Amino acid sequence: MPDVSVLDVRLHGETIGTLAHLGGDRTIFAFSDSYVAREDRPTLGLSFKDALGGLITELPATQRRVAPFFANLLPEGPLRDYLARRAGVHAEREFFLLWVLGRDLPGAVTIAPADGEAWPPMADDGLAEGAGGDRPDALRFSLAGVQLKFSAIENRGRNGGLAIPAHGVGGAWIVKLPSSRFEGVPENEHAMMSLARAVGIDVPEFRLVDLDAIGGLPEGIGRREGRAFAIRRFDRGPHGPVHIEDFAQVFGVYPERKYETATVRSIAQVLGIESGAESVAELVRRVVFCVLIGNADMHLKNWSLIYPDRRTPRLAPAYDLVSTIAFLDDDGFALKFARTRRFDAFGREELSYLAEKAGLPVRPALAVARETTERFLLAWEAEKAHLSLPAAAVTTIDAHLARLPIVRGV
Ligand SMILES: Nc1ncnc2c1ncn2[C@@H]1O[C@H](COP(=O)(O)OP(=O)(O)OP(=O)(O)O)[C@@H](O)[C@H]1O
Ligand SMILES: [Mg+2]
User: Fold this and answer.
1) 297 is catalytic
2) Do residue 14 and residue 153 come from a single domain?
3) Considering the domain boundaries, does residue 129 fall inside one?
4) Do 53 and 187 fall within a single domain?
5) Could you please report the per-residue DSSP string of 318-348?
6) 104, 246, 297, 320: which is the annotated catalytic residue?
7) What are the pLDDT digits (tens) for 42-77?
8) Which of 27, 46, 182, 233 is least surrounded by CB atoms within 10 angstroms?
9) Which domain holds residue 221?
10) Which of 190, 298, 300, 320 for mutating ligand 1's site (highest number of atoms within 8 Å of CB)?
């Protein structure tokens, strides 16, 4: 048995580097020479870009885990545990998880054993003890996040239903199952995405689906009654995968640090430099919207970049918009805006400061904030009685709105 295992990392199907598992439980990623030499190379991620726009090719080895860019391709929490258990791989052995899940990752990255080896060497301690998993073919799907969710395909025979593909690969929808902890999360997300669309935020196609209209859901997982929230994947286009990365990848931080290390200001700065005014305006629109609905969970993994031309990023469509205050009392955003994370301290002054420090023009940001607030209040008053939201949630959001300086400023 070789003591080095190698995974090919592919972008749009082209091998651009290798991830090697070395002795001493270290892993290291290296770009291939052909990728480094290519001038029009597709972008893997902004964290591989140096200050002059060149490619960073000297990458440090990591101990036990894979580097943050790759760790962020894997699911978190219960979904990771579930997939690891099914594969018979230890949930913390990220290299081996990539080995078994690498065919369906977020974006246009795929990962596969370099020599076509179907399965990591059995003697390796990457496998959980007494592993009796289902073998990789049964679980080739992967998406980051804490709730249980699956990649699904449209099931035309079943009247608007969805199906979890047996091999996980190829699904163009994400299905988020109801939470076992809170009542009505899919309905809340559906309501918030509808409002987001009404204020002009870029949202993918989405709908609520009866759980019994979803075929192929694995046994013994999540709640079986009620409805699931389904959203079309924006990283799967008619001509194949579209590349994306989330802001934990952009900033090179491990998923468990998604609430730290960066601020809305730093996201704005990246968008200002790499993407331009349209993405910055969309960021402001979404931040204001999330303040208004009381979404306290917009951590770094809930913001992504998308690469439609394979090289230049813009802010990806919105996802995971939930009024979290309907479930858990919280007085602040997941990230600091610039100096504060408090909802009731987010007004013209904080936004102006944020824009200035991010090197962005202040007046357009203020104009977008005002317009978003106005549009939201109109949509909210018109729709709040008709959305899939319980009366208590409407009351909570109304009370929250009454406390916000951003609302009083309109
Ligand atoms: N429409 C979409 N297209 C492509 N990728 C998506 C889409 N929606 C979600 N994702 C990806 O799936 C991941 C999980 O989805 P989402 O954030 O909605 O779920 P979650 O379980 O609520 O996450 P969280 O950990 O924030 O609670 C996201 O981080 C993102 O990478
Ligand atoms: Mg999320």
Assistant:
1) yes
2) no
3) no
4) no
5) P-----GGGTS---B-SSBSSS--BGGG-SH
6) 297
7) 999 999 999 898 999 999 999 999 999 999 999 888
8) 182
9) 149-237
10) 320
